[in-house]
Amino acid sequence: MLLTRRNLMQTALTLGAMHAFPGLTWAQARPLVFATFTGSWEEAHKAVLVPAFRKATGNADMVLDPMLSVDQIAKVTAAKNNPPIDVMLHDPGPALQAVAQGLVEPYPVEKSAYYKDLIPAAQEPSGPAPFFQVVGLTYNPETVKTPPTSWADLWKPEFKGRVGITNLNSTLGTGFMVELAKMHGGSESNIDPAFKAIEALRPSLAAVAANPGQLATLFQQGQIDISPGNFNAIQILKARGVPVEWVAPKEGAIAFKTTIHIVKNSPNRELAFKLIEAALSPEVQATLMEEPYLIVPTNTKVAMKGEIAKALAKDHAEIAKKFVFQDWAKINEQRAAWIERFNREIRV
Amino acid sequence: MAATLRNVTTYDLRLAAPLALGFVVFFITPLVILLALSFQADPQGTHYGLTQYVNFLGDRFSLGVLGSTLWLGVKVTLLTLLLGYPVAWLHQRAPSWAKGIIMLLVLLPLLTSVVVRTFAWVVILGRQGIVNAALASLGLIDTPLKLLYTDTGVVMALAQVQMPLMVLPLITALGRIDPNLADASSVLGAGHWRTFRKVTLPLSLPGIIAGCLLTYAAAITAFITQSLIGGGQMLFMPMYIYQQASTLQNWPFAAAISIVFLVAVLVVVSIFNVLGRLSRGYTNA
């Protein structure tokens, strides 16, 4: 009994103290939480972005909490008034959803030192894009002797039974379909031609992967020789000694903006802004461009160097020319229907 | 309180209270939320109705996914039973030193994660995998067989991954059979096959049913193995739910699919339970 009374007293005192000094409560006192993506993203951010942020803020407390876009949205939606995350990272599709659901604070553009230096495509007032993902053609140089140059090469008879694609669950799969539609006279709102093209590709398909990560496994196992692929994912495979190469097709590589957002009602708004500023800064972007990260910079003050300059683009003018950005607002409108149709129609 | 006689049986219930509380908070509550969610007519939840269920049950494609998932479970369960029964039987007949080894071999897969076991199957079934390499070097095939991303591959991998769930109940059931019964049967003139059919098999029925139940439930919900070995277009219920909930953010439909799946599985489970009760009657007779 004595124990219970003591506990009760402690609880009452704590609660009282929390009321008297609101700074004590967890919501206000917690460190900045940045929900980055898992895997190589987390590694890159831990190694480069976090130290830069600490330096800029005099060692402010921050935590990386890597999770998928979907989980970020779910967690913030579940506690809109006191979100457990301060900064979110999103692919174009989920980014639009987060903005549409009112989970995102507009970026204080006028306060930002770097926003105006970003390439125009990266200047998003709802949350700028510090990074890009680039999708081109991945192939196995041991079996594919002449490097492919166009998306159309996937339909070549010599790749019969050797082509891999992913389904539309991923940004990569959906982006690839939109590109196919555009090649055959369609657009973000007219996907029909892409489905016809995939139908024609069917004899060539060795596998339809459930996610882009599976494509990597399929290359490793020799299950496929050629597929649409993410530039950064291929660099990781290459570093592990898997025979893969990446080329940008002549139609242009598909580029996805990865945008970074301040969460609405975040208790750490100021720190969140500083983290995003660090992510946009030329210093951080220049470091992330180097091996082993090879992340494409969006700040025009960063000069392209190394593997990125060789495989992707020499400068930002070339990015604008060689990269294709898609209209994800339009894509999102019909994506559910496309996924449904892909489920039904594409059977190998 | 002290004056009255204490009822000792109440303690049992109170001991279960922490688990019961956990069960209510972490299982019943989410399930109720899931059920409520499934009645939303649209993701925003503006109005409620049976729209999601009508969409699912009125759609041949969706029903096909449900059917193929349940059928997958049947195939996997039959295969594990076929492969697992001899192992359990061998365990029963083996000398005690070999029993330990067999048990270790059965349990070993449980000590590694499902992801690792499944990736091993990716390596085994791949174009340059062990199966294809062996067949090619024997001169049996010219071009590699397609095993990964096929139905056969999924069934094979799932059967191995879920094998301990079948073998362990079988070992228990076979261990409970009095060995004298088999001897008695042969003394009375029955051959090995007849003894097995008339004595061992019926007496091991409870183990068979328990094993089948566990394997079946595990096989149809095995998201990781299904998607890693089956690939992106062999759509089974777990992946279908994931796709709707995660990629499309269509939570009401995902919830409705989950409820339909749950009900379908419950039906199968109750069939197993009825069989189990029947078999208990049989073995006690």
UniProtKB/TrEMBL annotation, chain A:
Keyword presence, Iron-sulfur: no
InterPro entries: Sperm_putr-bd, TAT_signal
Pfam families noted in UniProt: SBP_bac_6
Keywords for this protein: Signal
A molecular function GO annotation: polyamine binding
Keyword set includes Signal: yes
GO term, biological process aspect, one: polyamine transport
Superkingdom per UniProt: Bacteria
GO cellular-component term (any): outer membrane-bounded periplasmic space
Protein name: ABC transporter substrate-binding protein
UniProtKB/TrEMBL annotation, chain B:
CDD domains in alphabetical order: TM_PBP2
InterPro entries: MetI-like (IPR000515), MetI-like_sf (IPR035906)
Primary subcellular site in the record, as a coarse category: membrane
Transmembrane segments: 15-41, 61-88, 100-124, 203-231, 251-275
Compartments reported by the entry: Cell membrane
Family: Belongs to the binding-protein-dependent transport system permease family. CysTW subfamily.
Name by which UniProt lists this protein: ABC transporter permease
